[in-house]
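Bug #2210: token dump truncated for Dipeptidyl aminopeptidase/acylaminoacyl peptidase?
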Amino acid sequence: MKKTLLSLFLFVAAFSTIGIRAQEKPPLTWQDIAAWQYIRPYNTALSPDGQWLAWVDGPTEGDLKLVLRHTQDTLRYDFAIGGTATTAVFSRDGKYAAFRESPKRAEAKAAEKARKPLYSKLHVISLPDTQKVVFEKIKDFGFSGEQPAWIAVSFAAPDGAPKGDDAPKGTDLLLYHLATEKSFNLGNVSAYAFNKTGNYLAYTVDANGQNGNGIFLRDMATGITTALDNDKASYSRIRWNDEGTAFALLKAKKDEAYKTPVYSVIGISRINGDHTAKVIYSGIDDEHFPKGKGISEHGDVFWSDDLSTLFFGIAKLEKKAGKADGPGNADSVASKDSIKADSAVIAKADTSQAGKTATAAKPKDKADVEKPDVIIWNWQDKRLQSAQQVQQQRDKNFSFAAAYRLADNRFIQLADSTMRNVTIGPKQLYALGYDYSPYEWSNSLDGQSYVDLYLIDTKNGEKTLLLEKYYQSAARGIPFAPNGKLISYYQDGAFYSIDLTTRQTYPLTAQVDASFVNEKDDHNVTKPATPHFGWSEDSKFVFIRDNYDLWRITADGKHALSLSDNWKQTKTQVAGAYRIYPNDKAIDLKKPQYFAVFNDATKQSGIALLGAGKTSLQLLFMDDHGYSGLQKAEDKPVFTFTKENSVKSPEWLVSSAPDLANATQLTENTPDQKHYAWSSGVRLINYVSDHGDTLQAALYLPAGYEEGKRYPTITYIYERLTQGLNSYAMPAYPGGGFNRTVYTSNGYAVLMPDIKYKLNDPGMSAVACVIPAVKAAIATGIVDSDNVAIHGHSWGGYQTSFLITQTNIFKAAAAGAPLTNMISMYSLIYWNSGSTNQPIFEASQGRLTPGYWDNWEAFTRNSPIFHIKQVQTPLLLLHNDKDGAVDYTQGIEYYNGLRRLNKPVVMITYKGENHGIAKDPNKKDYAVRMLEFFDHHLKGKPAPDWWERGIDLLDMEKHLDERAFR
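Reproduced locally. Full output below:
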């Protein structure tokens, strides 16, 4: 009897164990990510009436769907949209939604391989009854403004249509009336734009042979179309003013005297059919127009608010060989015949002169002369030759801001070769000009950016020096007040304002008992600024944050009010302002304003409200979640925002209450998560660095975490990472190989510590912060001290490669794209921009200054390469051969040094890849290899062959074929 009971007990126990095991969820593998379903974060839209939220959902690799969800009930529609994410567009009245459907992923890949053109479809949905109309092979589309009776659909050029610069750009434009479903076709349309209300459509025609080309205006109520200008020319860049009462555009004509088409700016105003006001300006007869320049095809073209001035860009306009230089432009106010006549006279004069030269000497034809392929680097170059090469297209397309005043028929040049950067302020009364020329050479060397700031009167072009040798590195922005008469700026730890009319300067923060120097910014920048949130809509106040509290300060600086009531005491800071009113250009205190809040001690976040007319922030909520994306329906008090934490993916919530109360969840993100083992959450660890600073680290728990059990741990580093404590890590194929979620799902803990830097000791600072963080994590009882690894990419890769020269606390390390020799890296080229690395060292992440010749000990002390003999940690090194940020030679130098010392190291290089891995097959390959590497060293799994013995190049294809996952 006892034997039977014992057998029954063992059977039940065994059955229970089998049942528990059967309920265990599998870890997430890299193979699973291809099918991982999630909501795309940047493709959401809220209808103006707040009744509908649209988002895109689907697998990482595969075809997607667009979801239309009613915000007040459970009504939902799903639409297949192919392999490319898109964003729905709602009509202004919220009755219609339109969106693209792209080819399916498999079709797109096949078409790309066969080099066949791809086309999109357009779906227009009637939301009250879900009736749908579909348009094939579309190029773009747009609803007709605030009176959305129409949708315009532009179609792609038909197969076999002529291509090239001289080919006509116009295609069919369909005007579809939404209520009656009637269609009107306009042929050969190259550009179009509705005005704000939608009662007018401006469009350009670009037809074969330029027959009938012009700019046209259609009255959408009557259908009457007016030809505003016709010519053998091309028209482009239509831009309506905000009120929808006027617009400007460009016109281009070929001229035999010039190498490129010659542009004019057209201004249309006082719309009244055939009596509509029109001005065409080219500068051809303007003695003030700069010689050798013409209106640029790349510059912004727009009206001033008062319609007194046209703004545009000018650029170099080259004459053909044998043509004389001149102000140069096309038809405009002067007639076509007179321009041809003038051109002929100039050409004749030049030909005569050229003939004299030819008689004196007969050089070879230029085409017959072989030219050297050479680049000359001069020590006085303000920009490196490599930078000029990278920026060549930008330089070629650069346009200098200029204006034409109608009242006095006056051309005004705002920007020039020394003052290239000009910002035109609101109301177009003034502009700010940035003259870098006195400091450009030194700025390019040490990165400490200085500029002379000029005030430009847009009425006459008069320039007045406002700030000499202004230090931009501390704070880049110089915001205008909405009235265009005030600016604010930061200098030497304080904020100021300037009345541009009187030139009077006012100290804004002098009387405020707080520091406006960013205490968390430890780059080698002098007194970096705290955030400036901008001006009030009425231009009476500026909103500036100290390190925690938000201040409302009068424009003259005489009165300052803290809106957050000493939040510094609890380390709660106003983290940012939500701009939820799309038509507002500033903070309108007559409307409720919303702000993101963050507690630096607990890492909690939330949202605060500044009520209309109120003077203190109301904290609506703050907890252990991340909140973002707050938006408001344009016409109704309907709000949506996202909520997430370390184990719960972002979900969209909706509330109809101004205080965001009783928010309901609309989405169901990451439905596959429930099928896999998942992290058990996150712990916030406080610790003290070896420099004596109190810091924090985030310790993400492994799936199935059990109290008292220790786990293998990956330490992931960059700079300060605990701000993301409550953020969700979406499973994905990463550009650097590491995905937090994959590792926690596979039984790893992940430690992410904060690093605080001391100038001239970036590497040693990492040592002083990271090692105490690891020890503090071990002390929690969660981390297995014998199985801790470290990984970082780029700057994190540098610190990883340095840390393993200073400690043996890590059992394995993976460093992606690391700089390893501070001395050689200092003067190499950052190929992605063409500039030298020296500014990065002396004014940014490198935190070393000045050059190594005057700071040799610091450069060597913080260079991994000079301590390479001390490395005992097995290292997986990633460095791609086209890395444009950290030169490939840095990885090669470290690899060869370790190899020479017979240290365990493998370097992986993906051909043609830049600083991060971009191609999906390479992302997958490296992610798998990194996990294999850590599994071997921290979990005792068998070593992969590529680590154990290496792979000969001739065997690489076979090696890839044999791998289960590519």
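Output looks complete on our side. The longest helix spans residues 336-360. Marking as cannot-reproduce; reopen if the truncation happens again.
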